[in-house]
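Researcher: I'm preparing a figure for a lab meeting and need a structural model of a single chain. I don't have an experimental structure, so a prediction will have to do for now. The sequence is pasted below. Please return the structure as tokens so I can convert it later.
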Amino acid sequence: MNISKHEQRVLHILALGGEIQYLRYDNKKIKEIMCYTREGHILSDCTIELFKRLKTKKLISSKQSTPYRITRLGAASVRSQMVQR
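Model: Understood. Here is the structure written out token by token.
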């Protein structure tokens, strides 16, 4: 599966324990998303378009209105990276 560099970056953050929180419009559509790392920092590379691509590829999911997290397919698709601190 072809995954862009930005998608890889977001999936890697999610694989390390991050999450994507969201706000909805009144008509139930997602209005705003925020990608949080495990430490609580915000990832600015995560946009609505990137979020929709990850969701349609079924690399992330949400269960019972919880924040979006990586799926097994997403964890298998992400390439390993060294943590640069």
